[in-house]
Amino acid sequence: MSVSSKTTPGACPGSAERQPAAARLRTGTLGTADITFFVVSAAAPLTVMAGVAPIAIVLGGIGAPVAYLIAGVTLTVFAVGFTTMSRHVRSGGAFYAYIAQGLGKPLGIGAALLAVVGYNGMEIGVYGLLGSAGADTAHALWGVDVPWLPIALAGLLLVWYGGHRSIDFGAKVLGVLLVAETGILVLLAGGVLLRGGADGLSLASFAPDNVLVPGTAAVLAFAFIAFTGFESTVIYRREARDPGRTVPRATYIAVCFLGVFYAFVVWAVIQAFGDAAVVEAAANDPGGLFFAAITTYVGAWAADLMHLLIVTSVLASLLAFHNAINRYALALAEEGVLPAALGRVHPRHGSPYLAGAAQTVLGLVVVLSFALAGADPYTQLLLWVNTPGGIGLMVLQLLAAIAVPCYFRRVRHGEGAFRTVVAPVVAAVLLTAAIGLVVSEIDAFTGASATVNTVLVALVPGVLLLGLLLAVRLRRGRPEVYARFAEEPTE
């Protein structure tokens, strides 16, 4: 059933009359492949592999590929309860709606604020990576030294434009960029396999003795962060065709693809240098490991192409997160928590264009602030802003997992115990361990002082607490908004 003839989930009473029918999100637009493109693009596979996987190899040795499989299995278990609940809670607010329905409105409002801050942190910090990667690419290919700030600002403009246009336009753009960035990694892996690697192909990466090493905990922490954004499939529910099927399918495809693909590519790069030599090669030049491998096994032209595709990979990630943030802001504006103007939808493109403009302005302010402070775009703008964002989204996953059995205890349903109790409880335990790993290895993510790391980690519970205080204020000062928060529309 199209939402165009109904009050939008979470909307204020009468909002359907105030907003013309044409000014709605484009319902029935996205298929399984489109949603998958959005969430896999957010993870930026090429950037994660070329930029982070070498560090994982240094820390965890040749057993590093298994960490990505473990993270993928954990998040697949989480997806079981998460997607089951998506069939019953139809709000565009996803995380916060599930948490509010299962654990109560105060925690739901806290989760809403944490989601807004977390997703913004994951996107805005990446503008530092865009500037850094763009500058590196210009120097590597043309010998030109370009300041990072103009590149980041150009990215802000491009991402704003992509989010301003229709959602199907964004899906097409991300589809092309995702095929390109995964294609270059497949080309690298194919070259290694065809030539048999440096010392012949080996499965030693999957041997327990090579997996259970002291650095495994740190690698697991990196692996979990590499999946960030996969859960945003449910944010596109209102724009999906047959959301009861397409959203779960896209979620499973995304997380399974990322887990297997990451593990395969890391294993292939290990084969490119050989089990005995890869750790030293990664330690000596982590940023050049993938470029050296593809130059050897495919050709220098492929390394040049990889430089360019890393930049487009980062742009694709930015656009994917931008679209997710806009839809969270739209849902919260409809709830009455954020200003109503952020809930306006473009009459032609069907996009939450004012939310997109506001998010772009916020990104501009943060990027310029770091630039004016003389901060490094990678080690400070990217890592300091991204890290609390990533931890925040993992905390939301944990709360959502806990919310699933609590919700299904209170409602009548025909779902099995595995989906509503067993899988969510197992996921909650595993996610708790994963969050503990990330926090314990925070130094590896930021390279910052103990004081900075403490502040970055404390931001997550601080934002959640601020959200709880906001809930108290809403309950007292705007009881009608509080009562309506995350409630299902009446049929």
TrEMBL record:
Q: Where is this protein found?
A: Membrane
Reading the lineage from the top rank, the first entry is Bacteria
Instruction: List the Gene3D superfamilies hit by this protein, alphabetically.
Output: Amino acid/polyamine transporter I (1.20.1740.10)
Any one biological process term the GO annotation gives: transmembrane transport
Q: Does the keyword Mitochondrion apply?
A: no
Specify the Amino acid permease/ SLC12A domain's residue ranges.
35-470
Alphabetical UniProt keywords? Membrane, Transmembrane, Transmembrane helix
The protein here is known as APC family permease
> Which species expresses this protein natively?
Streptomyces ficellus
